[in-house]
Amino acid sequence: MRLLLAWILWKLCWAGPGFAEFQVPHLSFPESSSIVAVPVLRSGGRDGTLEAWVRVNTTATSKEASEYRFQDQLLRWEDQDSWPRAVTLELIDDNISETSVEVLVLSLDNSSGIRDLEVVVGPDVDGGIISFTHGTENLRETTPMLPEGPKPHCLIYAERILQSHGVATLWLQGCDSDFRVEASKGIDYSLLNASEPVVWQNGEVDRRCILQSVDSTLQDLNRSMQNLPPWQNGIRIWQDADVELDEVLCFGFISTGATLATRRVEFRLADAGTDGAGIAVCTQGEACLVNLTGLHVGRSDRIITTRNCTWFACAANMYADYELATDENNTIYVPAADLMYHDTGAWYTCRCFDVLQEAQAVLKVDLQGPFRDNFWACVLGWPGCHGRLTSSGDKALQHVRVLQSCPKLGMNATSDFRDLGVTARYNSSTDLFDLVDVQTVTKTDPGLYELCWCQENPDTGRNCSDVFEFIVVAGRLQVNGPYRLAEQTFDVNTALKVSLKGTELTSQDVLWLSEFPDCEGGRRMHTDSGYIFRMDAAENSVSGEQTVCWCRPGDQSSCTDKEHFQEIGKIIVKCVGDFVNFQGKCVMCHFPWDVPRADGEECEIDGLRAAGLTVMSIFLTISFVLALFQVEVSKAPPFFSMRRIHIEDVSVEGQDERLVMQSLGPHHLWVGASFDVKLHGTNHFLLDGKTRRATVLDRFRLELTDESGRFFVADASLGHFTLSPWGTFWYGQILYCIPLLAMVIFPFAAGAGISQVAQTRMAMSTTIVASEFVLAILICGISKSRTRLSSLSLRVRQYNAMLDEQNPNPSACPRGGSRAVTALRLFELYDFFEASIKSRSMYYIDPNIVRPVTKRHRLSFAERVGPQQVHYFISHWWGTPFRDFCSSVRRHAIRMAGTDEEETWKAIAYWICTFSNNQYRIEEELGATHQQSSFYLALHSGVCKGTAMIMDENASLLKRSWCLFELLQTVRLEREQPGFHLWFCTPTGVLNYGHATVELAMNIGRIIKDLSLEQATATSQADKDMIEKLVLEEMGSFRNIDQILRDHLAEALRKCQTEVNSNFEGLFTDLRGKNEVILEMADMAEGTLTKI
Q: Where does the sequence pass through the membrane (predicted)?
């Protein structure tokens, strides 16, 4: 397919005979070329035969036969022949000088292509050739560069060479250059034309200068002043400040009698740039003298200064142009005021050609100074400030001064003008201008200031030391930061909000409040925008005048030191209420009757408040004292309770069998009222911690029952009782009939009302209330600490004082037989506390006397008074009246001593559990086993001579398990230890010796007869089980120990019988006579034995 397409295209292009055409439209030959060939081509096809004739066109200037001859005018191509053909042309050379060009035009009669050919035959050189040179440079080869304003010299030389037949002439004239930009005559250059041609006579071949560069001012630019020959041309190429790109000077030549080597010569102006005409340097702020000597300008010319020298600037005076005039010295004086309206940089002295409507920049004026768009920024408080100054000139000679506004031209020291006194000098190492006194700027108000410029001029003596030399505006300086704040007042401990106005504030700015004028230390405020700063109420705790300090963090400031901060104002933080400022803190006025002075710095007395507070304090004190007297606080539980009414005594009174509690002093309770009370510290198990019902009998006494109103028995001379809170204030009374609750509420309400009348602030009222409350606490504390002691407590204190003299340093001793107490100490205790003991038992003696006496040393009573080696072991029941106990011991001691002399029988030592056991270490006294108990150790001490059982008429001790234990050990010791005995002691005597009343002895006998020790009880079931086990182990059964007990008692009763019989016999003998007495006594004895 591709081959087919190619064949079709070939057939379309080459089908047919085609046509003949010249290969080129133009050919050029010199006259001396002789034979030349003109090529002809066959185009458009090659089928068949093609013939073409070449003829001379009628437009030809060359003559056939004299100047040329044709050969082969017919051209022929055969079928498929496409080789080129040639037409032969013979050129005829002669000796005649021909200076013009001859043209021969050939035409083809059968052509659709190039059918005409121009053959140019160049002139001959029979009259010679005129060549042109510029120094050694051949102008025909290049277009030389010609500088503006060349020195006087020949620009173009003409020389006749080769032949010199005949006369040759040469004229210089202008021509059109092939370049687009041509130099303008009269503007870029001035030409002095020759008045006659250059002539070379026959045979002359010398070189001649036909164009001479001249050097002159405009005023003397004429031929007479230049001494030019009449055939020589003169030219002045003016220096200017225009930028000219490839401007060309073109000169053409006309010659006769000779051939021209070139018909024209072109120069390309070598543009020297805007500095080609020189530079006039002017400085802003100073007048300037511009010298135009030697430039293309005269006194009558219209001259302007402009940024762009164009005809439009001349026609419309655009770009703030000003028309100037030269003086007789060809200089222009430009006043400083005119230069103030010119921007820094390149200006041009522009000559306006009104007729030509052209303009020429004859001189560049370099106006040195700053550009007005310079912008610097400084920050308040930063130690340094600098900026880059865009300006022309030597910056080392330039100065910048920061002013509110630059002074105007003509101002002097008498003018009303504000000078900040801040200058900036150039730093060559950074190419920046540094403010010399930056603190002066940064301590002014923020905003825009003018940068005023001045340049030193050694020629005029200008040193820029006077502020009025800084009249040139170089730009603006912006001082960033806040404006000064107007003084504001805030209340302490309230949220602060400070609104700033200023320049370029940011959220990164730091604002803090300082107590010191120099911004040392401070509390930071918070911001989201840089314009509004806040501080929470909790942080606003410093009162008084405070300095508002501002800082911007950056390269020059970390906002951590006082030097980084700028003081921008003051705020006053006032204390509120009755507080005044003292060294940055709000302190309350020293006295509650004082109020702050108007300035908030000192206090002064307020008479109304002073009177009100006095009355208020009295009422509040009364209320608080009455209330606090009803409240008790202690270290031991309960730690908090209502008023404790101390107990003088608790005992059963009268025949009505009622339990009466007597208070220590008046109890101030309604007589006849009945309420629940709770007792503490009595050391009685039926009273302590129990709630009992109390009925007020009189000012000192209350009747106690259980909660059901039933009578019960208890003895105590210690402790206290309390009422419920409601009962305390309702049943309590003062002034006989007014409830205590009313006496507490009324003074408090009165004090609160007076506080409102006196306009006492809440904080002060609270302080006063607290003060009066503390005062009431002190009054109550002092009063309660001086509460009088009960009679028993006073006796305990006295007894302890006596013991401190007798045994100042009591110490513990081993348990057992070495911890006995003498009868002397026993009866000494009884006699000392007899008024309180009355008919009470050991249940009263231990908690009310023994423990208070031993509390300080926490020893047993025996150790406190001085322990002794045991002689006898006392087995007793705690419920036995203590006076009966002491009587029983006395009877036994006298019997054992064999005399009733006190010194003898009181020296006998007894081991009594109440006095020999340490009541603070009962567990230790009981021991881990019965053999480790103090009871066992005392009995088995080896020195104990026997056991004295204290018997009452009911033989109550034998109903207790521990007494059974003591009996068991006694029975065992009787078997193991000779001389160890068991005595039955009563208040009337020792049964073993018959020293007891018959009624008591017989009553004991009757009880023991039916008693089974197996029924004995104990507080602890474990103790009971342990003792029963021992009995069974030792005796085999309770029946055996019961029998042993009966045997011992029977023996004692026989002693009693014998003693009674003996006593009756003696009595009867004394009354009736001996015989009758014997008979009666025999009868009585028989009756007595019968009863037993």
A: 729-750, 762-782
Residues 331, 241, single domain; the answer is no
Q: Is 1091 part of a structural domain of the chain?
A: no
Q: Radius of gyration (Cα) for the chain, nearest Å?
A: 75
Specify whether 464 is located in the same domain as 499: no
Distance separating the N- and C-terminal Cα atoms of the chain: 172
Place of tokens 């920061």: 402
Distance CA 389, CA 46 (A): 82
Number of domains comprising the chain: 7
Neighbours of 369 (CB within 10 A): 26
DSSP annotation of 392 reads S
CATH number at residue 307: 2.60.40
Here the CATH number for the domain that contains residue 16 is 2.60.40.2030
The single-letter code of the amino acid at 560 is: T
User: What residues have CB less than 8 Å from 959, skipping those under 6 apart?
Assistant: 877, 1011, 1015, 1016, 1017
DSSP 3-state of 938: helix
Please, what is the Cα angle at 457 between 455 and 460, to 5 degrees? 135
Distance (Å, rounded) from C-alpha 729 to C-alpha 739? 7
**Is 26 found in the same domain as 94?**
yes
| Predicted local distance difference test score (pLDDT) of residue 339 | 73
In-domain check, residue 705? yes
Strand 872-875: give its sheet, edge to edge.
Answer: 821-822, 909-911, 872-875, 946-950, 981-986, 989-990
* Domain assignment present for 829: yes
Do residues 584 and 544 lie in contact, with contact meaning Cβ atoms separated by under 8 Å?
yes
Q: Cα angle at 936 between 932 and 937, to 5 degrees?
A: 75
Sort 87 into a burial class: Cβ within 10 Å, 0-12 / 13-18 / 19+. buried
Look at residue 219 in the predicted model and tell me its pLDDT. 54
Cis-peptide into 638, omega within 30 deg: yes
Dist CA 1048 CA 618 (whole Å): 77
The Cβ of residue 761 has, within 10 Å, a number of other Cβ atoms equal to: 16
> Mind giving me the DSSP string for 570-615?
EEEEE--TTEEEETTEEEE-SSTTEEE-TTSSSEEE-HHHHHHHHH
Listed residues 341, 368, 395: the one ending a domain:
368
Residues 831, 756: one domain?
no
Q: Is residue 877 one of the residues assigned to a domain?
A: yes
Whole-number pLDDT of residue 1053:
78
244 with 323, same domain?
no
For the chain, which residues score pLDDT lower than 50? 136, 138-140, 318-321, 1085, 1088-1092
Show the domain range for 925: 791-999
Same domain? 753 vs 875: no
The three-point CA angle 613-616-618 to 5° equals 110
Q: Which two three-digit tokens encode residue 98?
A: 């021909």
Q: Which of 999, 1020, 1036 is the last residue of a domain?
A: 999
Per-residue pLDDT reduced to its tens digit, 746-800: 777 777 776 666 666 666 677 777 777 788 778 877 777 776 778 888 899 999 9
Going by C-alpha positions, the residue among 357, 335, 274 that lies closest to residue 308 is 274
452-508 pLDDT per residue, tens: 999 998 888 888 888 888 889 989 988 888 988 888 888 888 888 899 998 889 988
Selection from 1009, 962, 1004, 960 nearest residue 984 by Cα: 1004
CA 525, 526, 529: angle at the middle one, nearest 5?
130
Q: Which of 197, 212, 205 is nearest to 254 (CA)?
A: 197
The pLDDT of residue 138? 45
Spatial distance between the Cα atoms of 262 and 79, rounded to a whole number of angstroms: 49
Whether residues 349 and 255 fall in one domain: no
User: Quick one: pLDDT at residue 325?
Assistant: 67
The one-letter amino acid code at 969 reads Q
pLDDT of residue 139: 46
> Is residue 265 domain-shared with residue 281, that is, in the same domain?
no
Cα–Cα distance, 463 to 454 (Å, whole number) = 9
Q: Structure pTM?
A: 0.47
